[in-house]
């Protein structure tokens, strides 16, 4: 990966793995589903204490919460949320700032966040909706902080729910560029 | 021509002209109480002095306020605790930004904004001073006088210049001890009372500084060109690049006179003179001649040795039609060199200035849709860390560079990258508080498509922006001209175009059409905003700032998105 202090060999074994990289969403509305074969190694269940040292800045779920498919001809809202198929996920601790997280909460698409966290094997223990007094609930804010900012997807795919189009994530950077025909 | 100062919504408007020394009443009074001349400069830049009888500009006035030779030392206070007087050079067009920054960051007082320089007093420590983001180099102010009168007599002029440096020995000792305080804080070699460091040590230091210089060479050259005084005057080579001829000649002369000058064992000190002159003086004397004369004077005065490669202290002398200034640079590297940026794209001072216009508040979502190496995001995230930043680019190599930059700066928690095209960003509407971008057409990087895409870009940025959000763009001169066409078209299309606003729009455009080579386009007053004249859909122009990129000019545009029928 770019910029890591220890250069990672090409076929490096990801140090932390999601337990279900092959989450395949059930076909909806007749969209074709592409099964992505992902490298799976180590089935150790992920716990927040497992940290990855060295490089590893990946796509956060905060970013995923914003990303939508820009493929043409989708139904309104059909481009969101993108389904994550991750082959390399890491957890990297980020300093917690309650006020900062509290500001993020109202801007989040909550359902998409929960779904994404689940799909990465990080069930978030978050309620279906933020409670009205969430600002003062530190435990809640810490859980939000964790799934939103500390879980990162380094390699994998984001799939448009409507069209099935796959956007690769490589070295933590999602490639959302469309080809000439798609744009 | 007039430049409007940067408008922060809460900041009072100062009646200053950046080009002259017109001070506001408060500053004039402050200066008067410390016996410095308060000069007003007319529109043509010719100073008119109040109550000065002595030869132009060189009245012995007494030490500036805060100088150790005055009350501070007498009071026995630690020099650092008192206010020092400084000046900071700035790229053309960035002076208002720097002025605002010194007030905000350093609580500066007696701020005097002139072309290319901002003078100020502050009690801030060197660590704080080092954090200035919109300046080029920071100097301790030693002397500031009104401009020397240009006369044909070289000898007389040299004499006048040299007299700036003739002081009691104690004066220069004080200067050195203050300078040492600063460098002590910075952790440089601070014990200059020792013998000369061994040749080996010095060589290794030279190697370091040489490599640093190589890295910064380009930037230093840019610094030189940015200091170019507009109007008449030759732009002189600043002997910061040690390969210039002027420096070798100074070295030769120093060898001969150096030996006799070593009187004071204590001050086994080396120095270099950097001289810049422009305007009337430059017609008579070259910077090399002046530098040489001053160098010799200082050697005789203080017993210092001239060292062009790696001096202990650098004496900076700037002579132009407005003033004569003597200073000592506080830091070896320009402020514009950021230790947290590995590979610079856009000049960091301009990137910071743009970010400062974007009104980034806590919890804001900020996007740079053509981020390149991420310079703008890095500057913004460093200064306003309580926000979330995203950068998008179509180029793998740029994104890779940005990734390295972000990791090197330790800002991985703040800035996320995407590979995406600005024409179709995979982001929802009205989701960002600020969109900041350096539009790369016609500058360093050529974008694949035509300049025609500009309206599309604007439209996409407008879509992404929340109502009340801010767009800040950096446009080349060509694009700047084009913007007027684009916004003219949009006015006709926009359903909210109010007839009352057209007259103000024409005024604004007339100002932009001002074709002076030295033109720096004006900022637009808040009254413009209040007219709610939309320039493009729901975007209202809230300021245009002309800045120098070194070889070319560019324009920073600020837009606000307002609530319209379309986006309610």
TrEMBL record, chain B:
Biased composition (Basic and acidic residues): 205-229
Protein's UniProt keywords contain Nucleus: yes
Pfam families: UPF0020
Protein keywords: Methyltransferase, Nucleus, RNA-binding, Transferase
Sequence segments annotated as region (Disordered): 37-67, 188-257
Molecular function GO labels: RNA binding; tRNA (guanine) methyltransferase activity
InterPro entries recorded: RlmKL-like_Mtase, SAM-dependent_MTases_sf, THUMP_dom
GO cellular component term of the entry, any: nucleus
UniProt keyword Metal-binding present: no
Catalysis: reaction(s): guanosine in U6 snRNA + S-adenosyl-L-methionine = N(2)-methylguanosine in U6 snRNA + S-adenosyl-L-homocysteine + H(+)
Domain of life: Eukaryota
Subcellular location field: Nucleus
Polar residues biased stretches: 245-256
THUMP domain boundaries: 222-330
One example of a Gene Ontology biological process annotation: tRNA methylation
Function per UniProt: Catalytic subunit of the THUMPD2-TRM112 methyltransferase complex, that specifically mediates the S-adenosyl-L-methionine-dependent N(2)-methylation of guanosine nucleotides, most probably at position 72 (m2G72), in the U6snRNA of the major spliceosome. This modification in the U6 snRNA affects the constitutive splicing efficiency of introns that have suboptimal splice sites and can impact final mRNA levels.
Subunit structure: Part of the heterodimeric THUMPD2-TRM112 methyltransferase complex; this complex forms an active tRNA methyltransferase, where TRMT112 acts as an activator of the catalytic subunit THUMPD2.
Protein family membership: Belongs to the methyltransferase superfamily.
Entry protein name: U6 snRNA (guanine-N(2))-methyltransferase THUMPD2
Species of provenance: Melopsittacus undulatus
Designated gene of the protein: LOC101869654
């Amino acid at each position: 990966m770019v910029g890591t202090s220890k250069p990672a060999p090409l076929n490096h074994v990801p140090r932390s793995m999601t337990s279900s990289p092959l989450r395949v969403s059930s076909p909806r509305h007749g969209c074709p589903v592409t099964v992505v074969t992902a490298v799976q190694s180590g089935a150790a269940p992920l716990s927040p204490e497992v940290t990855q040292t060295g490089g590893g800045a990946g796509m956060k779920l905060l970013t995923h919460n914003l990303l939508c498919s820009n493929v043409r001809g989708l139904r309104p809202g059909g481009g969101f949320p993108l389904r994550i198929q991750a082959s390399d996920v890491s957890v990297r601790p980020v300093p917690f700032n309650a006020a900062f997280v509290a500001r993020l909460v109202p801007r989040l698409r909550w359902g998409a966040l929960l779904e994404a966290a689940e799909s990465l094997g990080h069930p978030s223990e978050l309620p279906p909706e933020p409670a009205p007094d969430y600002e003062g609930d530190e435990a809640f804010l810490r859980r939000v902080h964790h799934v939103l900012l500390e879980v990162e997807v380094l390699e994998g795919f984001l799939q448009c729910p409507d069209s099935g189009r796959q956007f690769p994530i490589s070295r933590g950077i999602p490639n959302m560029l469309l080809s000439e025909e798609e744009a | 021509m007039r430049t409007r100062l940067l408008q922060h919504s809460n900041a009072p408007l100062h009646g200053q002209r950046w080009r002259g020394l017109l001070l506001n009443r408060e500053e004039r009074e402050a200066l008067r109480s410390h016996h410095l001349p308060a000069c007003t400069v007319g529109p043509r830049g010719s100073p008119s002095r109040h109550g000065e009888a002595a030869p132009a500009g060189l009245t012995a006035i007494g030490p500036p306020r805060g100088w150790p030779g005055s009350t501070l030392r007498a009071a026995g206070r630690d020099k650092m605790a008192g206010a020092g007087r400084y000046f900071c050079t700035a790229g053309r067009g960035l002076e208002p930004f720097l002025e605002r920054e010194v007030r905000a960051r350093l609580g500066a007082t007696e701020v005097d904004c002139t072309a290319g320089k901002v003078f100020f007093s502050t009690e801030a420590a060197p660590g704080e001073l080092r954090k200035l983001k919109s300046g080029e180099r920071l100097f301790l102010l030693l002397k500031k006088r009104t401009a020397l009168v240009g006369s044909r007599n070289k000898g007389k002029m040299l004499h006048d210049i040299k007299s700036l440096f003739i002081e009691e020995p104690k004066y220069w000792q004080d200067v050195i001890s203050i300078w040492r305080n600063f460098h002590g804080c910075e952790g440089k070699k601070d014990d200059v009372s020792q013998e000369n460091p061994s040749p080996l040590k010095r060589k290794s230091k030279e190697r370091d500084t040489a490599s640093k210089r190589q890295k910064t060479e380009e930037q230093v050259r840019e610094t030189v060109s940015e200091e170019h005084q507009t109007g008449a005057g030759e732009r002189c080579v600043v002997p910061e690049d040690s390969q210039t001829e002027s420096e070798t000649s100074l070295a030769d002369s120093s060898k001969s006179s150096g030996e006799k000058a070593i009187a004071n064992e204590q001050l086994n000190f080396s120095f270099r003179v950097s001289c810049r002159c422009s305007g009337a003086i430059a017609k008579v004397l070259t910077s090399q001649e002046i530098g040489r004369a001053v160098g010799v004077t200082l050697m005789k005065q203080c017993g210092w040795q001239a060292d062009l490669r790696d001096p202990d202290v650098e004496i900076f002398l700037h002579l132009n039609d407005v003033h004569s200034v003597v200073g000592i640079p506080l830091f070896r590297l320009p402020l514009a060199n950021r230790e947290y940026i590995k590979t610079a794209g856009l000049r960091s001072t301009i990137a910071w200035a743009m970010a400062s216009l974007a009104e980034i508040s806590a919890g804001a979502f900020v996007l740079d849709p053509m981020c390149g190496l991420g310079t703008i995001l890095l500057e913004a995230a460093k200064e306003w860390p309580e926000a979330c930043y995203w950068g998008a680019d179509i180029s793998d190599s740029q994104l890779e560079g940005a990734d390295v930059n972000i990791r090197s700066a330790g800002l991985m928690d703040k800035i996320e990258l995407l590979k995406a095209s600005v024409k179709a960003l995979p982001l929802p509407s009205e989701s960002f508080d600020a969109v900041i971008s350096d539009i790369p057409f016609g500058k360093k990087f050529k974008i694949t498509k035509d300049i025609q895409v500009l309206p599309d870009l604007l439209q996409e940025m407008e879509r992404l922006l929340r109502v009340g959000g801010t767009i800040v763009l950096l446009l080349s001169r060509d694009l700047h001209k084009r913007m007027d066409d684009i916004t003219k078209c949009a006015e006709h299309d926009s359903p909210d175009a109010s007839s009352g606003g057209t007259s103000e729009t024409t005024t604004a455009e007339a100002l932009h059409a001002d074709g002076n080579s030295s033109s720096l386009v004006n900022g637009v007053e808040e009254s413009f905003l209040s007219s709610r004249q939309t320039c493009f859909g729901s975007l209202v122009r809230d300021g245009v700032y002309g800045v120098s990129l070194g070889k070319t000019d560019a324009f920073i545009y600020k837009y606000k998105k307002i609530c319209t029928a379309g986006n309610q």
